[in-house]
Amino acid sequence: MTESWHADEHLPVIARFEVGHRSYLAPDGSTNRQLPAFAADTRLLVRLYRAMVLVRAFDVKAVALQRTGRLGTYAASLGQEAVSVGTASAMRDEDVLLPSYRDNPALIWRGVKLEDILLFWGGDERGNRFSGSIEDFPFCIPVGSQAPQAAGVAYAFKLRKEPRVAVCLFGDGATSKGDLWEAMNFAGVHKLPVVFVATNNQWAISVPLRLQTASETLAQKAIAAGFIGEQVDGNDVVAMHAAAREAIEAARNGQGPRFIEAVTYRLGDHTTADDAARYRSTAEVQARWKEEPVARLRSFLAGRDMWSKRKRRALPLNASSASTRRSSATWLRSRERPRRCSIISMPSCPRPMLRNAANSRGETDARDDAGRSRQHGARPRDGG
Ligand SMILES: Cc1ncc(C[n+]2csc(CCOP(=O)(O)OP(=O)(O)O)c2C)c(N)n1
Ligand SMILES: [Mg+2]
C-alpha cells in the first residue's frame, strides 16, 4: 500500500481501499486454494484447454502467413490465452464482447470462424462481419477506444431493461488513456452492466508497465470510479473464468460495473512488425515461460487424471493440424474472389499500406526507428 503522505497523523481517514488477488493454479499445476465449484466439471476444463491450444496453433499459422506475405500485421496472443478464453467462456451468448486486436482467443470461443479472423488480418473488412448470430464488436485497433463504446452498449442494455452485459477487453497501455477513465467514470455513475478486463501483459509495445503507471495495481483504478477492481492471475484460466463469471453475473444482476486486472505476460513480439529482443532480455522472457497458462492447466488436468496422451493426440497441437489447415485454405481461396480488397492486393491501396505490405513480404528494406535502413530480412515497422 502507498505510504501516508500527510504529516498530521491525527487527521481522520475518510477512505481506505483493498485490492484482492485471485489465483487457484500455481505454475506447476498444483492448487494453492480451494477450487471454485465449476472446476469439478472436467468437460469445461478440457474445453478451456482445447481452446487455448487451438489459439496457440492458430497464432503460429497466422504468423507464418504474415511472413510469407499473405497477412498484414498480426498480433499474436502467445502467453495470454487464458485471459481471453477465461473471460469469453464466462459470457452468455447474448452478452456483447468488445475486444482489442489481441483477443482472437475470445472471439474464437464466441464462435467466430478462423477464416473470418484471417480475412480481417489480410486487410479485408468483411472479416469483421462475423458469421453467426453474435453481436460482438470487431477487433479494436485504436487503443482503448472500445471502452467508451462498451459503456454505451451497457447503457443501451440498461435503458432497454435487457439482462445483458458488455465485456470489454483492453491492454495495460489502454489504462493510460482518457477513454478508459471516461468510460469507467460514466459506468460507475450510471451503475452500468459492463465488465472491464485489463490484460496486463507488462508491455505496451516497448513501454514497460512501470512507465505506464505509478499505481501499485491497475485494479485500484476502478475504486476511484466507484466500483470493485480485482487483480487476477491471468495465467490461471480457472481464476480468470471464476473472476469473469462473478463479475458478469454481478453486472447482470444490477450491481453495476466491475474491473478485472489480469496479470500475465506477452511472450511474443508485440506484433509481426515488432522485434521485442530490442527492448527486453531473453532471460526475462525465459523466466516468464515457466508461468505460461497452457502447460499450467495441462499439468493440473494430468495430475487429476483428466488428461491423457490419447486426448493430446486428438488436439491441433501444431500449425499444420487439420483445422488450421482447413481455415487457411478457405482464406486463401477467398483471396481469389474477384471482389477482393486485401491490403496486399488492393490496386488503390494508399502508399503507407502498400509499403507495409511490401515490407511484410521482405521485398524492401525496412527502416528502424531512427530512420536507418536495416538489413534485408529485417521486420517492418509497426503498422498498428
Ligand atoms: C489511439 C492509439 N494510439 C496508439 C496506437 C499504437 N499502438 C498500437 S498497440 C499500442 C500499445 C498498446 O499496449 P496495450 O494497451 O498494453 O496492449 P497490448 O498490445 O500489450 O495487448 C500502441 C501504442 C494505437 N493503435 N491507437
Ligand atoms: Mg500490454
Output the keywords.
alpha/beta; 9% strand; Rossmann fold; two-stranded antiparallel sheet; binds thiamine diphosphate; 37% helix; single chain; disordered C terminus; binds magnesium ion; 2 domains; 384 residues
Inertia-based shape: globular
Mean pLDDT: 84
CATH architectural label of the largest domain:
3-Layer(aba) Sandwich
DSSP strand count = 8
**Main β-sheet, in a few words?**
6 strands, parallel
User: How much helix, percentage-wise, in residues?
Assistant: 25-40%
Ends: how far apart?
36 Å
The tally of domains stands at 2
Bound molecules: thiamine diphosphate, magnesium ion
What Rg is obtained from the alpha carbons, in whole angstroms?
A: 21 Å
- How many helices? The count is 13
CATH level 1 class label of the largest domain: Alpha Beta
CATH-level-4 superfamily name of the largest domain: Thiamin diphosphate (ThDP)-binding fold, Pyr/PP domains
Structural class: alpha/beta
Strand order of the largest sheet: 1-7-8-4-3-2
User: Low-confidence runs (pLDDT<50, min 5 residues)?
Assistant: 328-384
| Strand portion | 5-15%
CATH topology of the largest domain: Rossmann fold
Order of helices and strands: EHHEHHHEHEEEHEHEHHHHH
In brief:
This protein has 384 residues and is an alpha/beta fold. 37% of the residues lie in helices and 9% in strands. The chain has helices spanning 42-67, 81-88, 104-109, 114-121, 146-160, 178-189, 220-224, 237-252, 282-289, 293-303, 309-313, 322-334, 351-360; strands at residues 21-22, 96-98, 166-171, 194-200, 203-204, 207-208, 228-233, 258-263.
Could you explain how this protein is built, in words?
This protein is α/β, with parallel strands linked by helices. The protein folds into 2 domains: 15-28 and 38-268 and 279-336, Rossmann fold, CATH 3.40.50.970; 340-379, no CATH class. It is 37% helix and 9% strand. It is built from 13 helices and 8 strands. It has helices spanning 42-67, 81-88, 104-109, 114-121, 146-160, 178-189, 220-224, 237-252, 282-289, 293-303, 309-313, 322-334, 351-360; strands spanning 21-22, 96-98, 166-171, 194-200, 203-204, 207-208, 228-233, 258-263. The chain has a 6-stranded parallel β-sheet with strand order 1-7-8-4-3-2, sandwiched between helices. A two-stranded antiparallel ribbon has the order 5-6. A hairpin with a 2-residue loop joins strand 5 and strand 6. Helix 1 (42-67) packs across helix 2 (81-88), helix 2 runs parallel beside helix 8 (237-252) and helix 4 crosses helix 12. The longest helix is centred in the N-terminal third of the chain and has 26 residues, at 42-67. The two termini are 36 Å apart. Residues 328-384 have low confidence and may be disordered. The structure holds thiamine diphosphate (TPP) and magnesium ion. Residues 100, 102, 141-143, 171-174, 199, 201, 203-205, 266, 270, 384 line the site of thiamine diphosphate.
